[in-house]
Structures are given as structure tokens and as C-alpha cells.
Design a protein that fits this description.
The structure is a homodimer.
Chain A lengths: L8 H12 L2 H8 L3 H15 L4 E4 L2 E4 L1 H17 L12 E7 L1 H9 L1 H5 L5 E7 L13 E4 L8 E9 L1 E5 L7 E4 L4 H9 L5 E4 L2 H9 L5 E4 H4 L6 E2 L9 E8 L6 H21 L1
Parallel strand pairs in A: 3-4, 3-5, 8-9
Antiparallel strand pairs in A: 1-2, 5-12, 6-12, 7-10, 7-11
The structure holds a DNA duplex (30 and 30 nucleotides).
Amino acid sequence: MHEMNANWDDLRLFAAVARGHGLAKASKATGKSAPTLSRRMLDLERATGRELFRRLPKGYELTADGEALFEKVTTLEAGLSTIWNPPARGKRTLVKISAGTWMSKYLCEKMDAIVGSDDSILVRLISAEEVLDISRRQAIIGIRNHRPHQRGLAGRRVGRVRFAFYAINKDVNPWARYTGNTPSAEWLGKHADEREIIEVTHPRNMLDLALAGSARALLPTIVGDRQSGLMRVSETIDELEGDQWLVVHDDDRFSPAIRRTVDRVFDVLRDLHRNHS
Amino acid sequence: MHEMNANWDDLRLFAAVARGHGLAKASKATGKSAPTLSRRMLDLERATGRELFRRLPKGYELTADGEALFEKVTTLEAGLSTIWNPPARGKRTLVKISAGTWMSKYLCEKMDAIVGSDDSILVRLISAEEVLDISRRQAIIGIRNHRPHQRGLAGRRVGRVRFAFYAINKDVNPWARYTGNTPSAEWLGKHADEREIIEVTHPRNMLDLALAGSARALLPTIVGDRQSGLMRVSETIDELEGDQWLVVHDDDRFSPAIRRTVDRVFDVLRDLHRNHS
DNA sequence: AGGTTTCATTTCATGCATGAAATGAACGCC
DNA sequence: GGCGTTCATTTCATGCATGAAATGAAACCT
């Protein structure tokens, strides 16, 4: 057996067998069964080319070679004792997720899948139409409609987003118009002309108007197609079609807690696109 | 994850990943696949509660925590380098097996199963009726008709041995009598009376006489019943019935080579008894 | 912009290490 | 001597860690 491939974990188990003077006590200490320990000790004797134990009816007794190895293993065990620190308890990682109105709404529906039983994170969902600065840590995770170009940011493409009008039926003609600074809001401003318009200052009010039968709302198809009580009343708008990205700061990929959260947010978003297209 | 259960082998793999600056080179060095290494590094990060790597498109880069751990692991790796010595090559263990005539004959038939491809042992089969002193290492393994009582000897019961007369047919009347110092030889001396006797000074000559049709031979049933050309021509002799034991010195149980040989001899003998009874 | 290469991660099938159960051995007690 | 206990080892079924294959991402080249 080549040195590089010998299982170091057999050393840890060896120490437990030596301390317990046999397999029975070591089995309790390590959570491995006695048959497994028996085999692993034979593996270790083969790897070292030495007889480490006398196998007696009442248990295992170290040989001189075994005593020497035990000393070496307890020394390295002590040296390793500082590396197995669990993360500080009660110290949650704040994970700021920024998304627009429609994505925020969806993430709220799926928050159980994002947080679950993970008590090492504290999620703050920042619902805003403007783009927060991830490189300055205004957000940790961003849902974006552009690929990240900024240095130090990493992006994962989630899917494609299209816009269309939605209403309770085709007879509804007025447009609900959001007056903010988004591509879809700008499109509405450019194409409204002399149409009957109802202006709102928050995107969710467009949806309210549509559901009330008062106006058509320009919504992402992944949102409108899932909304009961509404139907699509136009073709999709080519100008507004684009990709959706999950953006993270490179440095934050190193925290297991953040990695897990990123993965779960990504999964949730991918599900949305997968079930839609 | 509790410290006692953390897998030390992850540390060995960690060093390989750190040296190879990623999973691809470490996979070649360790013989583990990249997916496995990826999972094991995540396991280790969980056990330590630290981010050990930056995961980049071109591979893995150690964090400061990772650098610290790498230093510690290479130190312990160096400390362990002397324990993985393979056994000295070309140095065979001499395994002296002592048995009486009939068991020696049988073991010779089964020597392939005992030695096989095991080139770490050299078997010396000592065929003798007298009992060699295992505690003084005249023999390493003994096939005995008594349970070992001597301190430091360990015995494993193989089976039961019975004696009966064998001949080519019931019409053969002379007895072949071995003049040595065994229980069956003594029994023959006590019961021969005025019978026609042919004396021999070696047990195998009794068999020769029987096969030649010149005499009856008192043989263990496990021997006589297997001998083509002979049939049992008497009931078994109660006085001569007894157990057969495999006896080893306790100290010799620690050598893997001897252990293996003991196990194989035991298996071969058990087969004999199992197929017979 | 499209294609190729290299790397890591995910998905899925399966080999093998593991543990439950059975077995064997030794010891102690009645 | 028979029975019970404790321990280790063997046998057999199976859960899970592993690796093959697929997938995704980034970088580089044309």
C-alpha cells in the first residue's frame, strides 16, 4: 500500500481502540461498529507493516510498535485540536438579497426553501427597483437583468425574462403605468400616446389594478402567467426581453453559509424558469 | 460535527488539493475523483468552520485559513512519514508446522491452500509422533490431540478424531502394529495377544501393509475413510476417541503472516472434519 | 461571435464499506 | 458440566460514498 493512499482516518480509530483496550469501547467512542474497527485495524497493520495489537479474549493490547504509534498519534491529535472549531454559535450571517418587485414577491413565497432550518443566516430581502452596489456590500446577493461586468463580481445566469400585458380579459383597455426608472416603465412612457393611463408609483399597484379589472399591467411572463385571475392579452415585447442573473461578490463565495444561501436562491429561481418555459 | 468523528483522511486530501492548486491534479495524485474531492473539501470546511479555499475558474486558491492549515498538515505528514514502512522484502517468515503422520500427509495434499501465493512465509512441515515444544519454538503451529494447558499457548478445536481398523476386505486378519509411543500404538500392544502381528517402526508402513492386503491398519477414520482401496473392518475404538486441536503460541498471533497461515491451516483441517462427519 | 479547452459541480447508477445478525472462543459462576 | 456474559470475527444484506457521465462556467483563440 502506497503511503499517499493510506487512510489517515485509520489512525484516529487506532487511538480510540488503544484507549479502549479493544473494539467494544472504541465502537462507542467513534460510532463505528466493531467489525468495521476490526477490519480497519488490520488495514492499518498492513499499511505500517507492523503488528500493533495482541488480540486477546478480553480485548486488544498494544505491542511495543503499537505503543510507539500511539504516542505519535496522540501528539498529532493534540496538534489538530485547534482546527476543529465549530463556527461561533448565535452569530448569524446577515445575507442581504436585493431584487425587484416581482422577484421579491416570488422569493417571499419561497422563503422557506431559502432559509429552511439554516439557523446560521439572517435573510434581509431588499425589494427595490434601483440596482444596489454589491461591491460596496449594499447587497450580498443580487437578482439582475444584466450580466455583471464589475471586477470581483460573479454571475450565474438564471433564465430569460419576457414582458407582456395581463388583464382579467381582452376587453380591459386602460394601461396601468409605473412612473419609476425601469426598462418596462420607460417603454410604457414611450408607447402610451393618447391611451387611457392610470399611473402608479409602485409596481405592485399595477397588479392591483389588473386584478380589479381596471387596467392592463405590463408584467414579466414568469409572474403574470402564474397569477390566477389574469390572462395574457398581448404578444411579448421584444425590446424588453432579456436575461436574468444571480450576482454575488467573489469574496462572499467563501462563506459556507452564504454559499448555501446562494445555491438555494439559485435553485428557487431556476425552478421558476424551468416550470415556466 | 464533533471533533472525534471528523475524518482525518480529509486532511490528507486537503494537502493534495492545496499542492495541486485544484481538484484535477489532486485527483491524479490521490486516486480519488474530482467530485469526491470537491465534496470532501466541503466536508472539511464544515468540520473546521472555516473557508479554506477560494474557488476560481482555473482551480482552488488557499485562503489565509487554508494556508495555516496547510502548514499544520504538512508538518504532521512529515511526522507520519516513518510509520508507513512496508515489510522488508525477501524476508520470509519461517512457519514450522508440527503434526503426526496422518495429519502431515493430509496437509501435504492441501499445501497449495495453505501457502498459495503468500510469498512472505516459508513453511516447514515437521512430521513427528512426539509432541514438539511450541513454547520453546520447536514448532510455531501444532496439530495436537490435547487441549493446550501450558501458559502462553492458545488452542482452537478443530474436530473429533476416531480410530478404526481398515483393510482391503474383512478377510484380512493380521494386524500391522506400529511400535512407537502413541495412544493407538499402545492400544495395539495391549490388545494384540496371540494375533498374527506385523510390526513396523513408521505409521505409514501400516498403511502400506493394508493396501497390499497383508494386514489391518488402525487408522483415524478421517484418514481411512478417505483412502481408496480400503474399507472399515471394525467399529470405532472408544478408548482412542478424542479431540483434535490447533495450537499456537500467543506471541505468534501478532504476525500477520503467521495469522494468515494459522487461519488457512485451520480452514483446511475444518474442511477435512466437516466433509467427513 | 462562435468554438474549443480546462476546470469544477451536479446527476445518476452502482460498487463496496459498513453494520446487523450470526457465530465462535474464552472466561466466570453456579 | 452447563449456562450466561463479554468480546472479537465472519457472513450477508444494504445504505451511502464514490465515480462515470452530463452539465455549467470562464477563459482563450480564431
